[in-house]
Design goal:
This protein has 194 residues and is of the alpha+beta class. Helices cover 36% and strands 24% of the residues. It starts with a helix and ends in a 15-residue tail after the last helix.
Length: 194
């Protein structure tokens, strides 16, 4: 994976497979502790204690299509490579929270990527799925829920091309304002408005 948005996509796919109704995605730049924290929280079926102990092992997977699952092991390795950590909390029938803390200014941290396009692809795949996206830094905050958008649009479906174009563009603009930088990168100047 070349961007963190691809890791977020992978985590969200795990949540969807677990039957989540609401999937919350947050990206927070914590300048004071030099951390970038990605979190995906869901209300899906959760992970039992036995699998939870082994979930970052590439050979521990619930998939039936192939015998390996590399998403969480790769994310854990990336977190540790940048001086961060990966934590997973889960209770059966209550949901799962995956939190990846990475070094904000570490040279090995991947670029964030295009969160707007990622969210639009997720909506296109299942427009009835509820998502909440939070982007947060000292420069600003976005808190966007697809349920609110759906309510405002009434009879217009979320997968309507003009709605997806708006969603992609709006999140892209907010990402630039909140995190700064070019090529969807988070700059070390996240705390200033220059």
């Amino acid at each position: 994976m070349r961007e963190l948005s691809e890791h977020l996509m992978d985590l969200v796919q795990n949540s969807r497979r677990a039957g989540a109704r609401l999937i919350e995605i947050s990206v927070r730049a914590l300048v004071e502790t030099d951390q970038l924290v990605l979190q995906v929280k869901d209300d899906g079926s959760g992970i039992g204690p036995e699998l939870l102990e082994r979930v970052t092992d590439p050979y521990a997977t619930t998939r039936t299509t192939r015998p390996v699952g590399l998403g969480l092991p790769l994310l854990k390795e990336l977190c540790e490579l940048t001086g961060g950590s990966l934590s997973i909390r889960s209770l059966p029938q209550e949901g799962t929270t995956v939190e990846a803390a990475l070094g904000l200014n570490h040279i090995d941290r991947l670029p964030l990527g295009d969160i707007g396009s990622t969210l639009s692809l997720l909506v296109l795949a299942d427009p009835d799925q509820d998502y909440r996206l939070v982007l947060d830094s000292p420069r600003g905050r976005l808190d966007l829920a697809t349920a609110d958008i759906r309510s405002q649009l009434q009879d217009v479906p979320l997968r309507e091309p003009s709605v997806l174009d708006w969603l992609t563009g709006y999140v892209y603009e907010q990402q630039e304002i909140i995190f700064g930088g070019v090529l969807h990168e988070i700059t070390s100047r996240t705390g200033s408005h220059s």
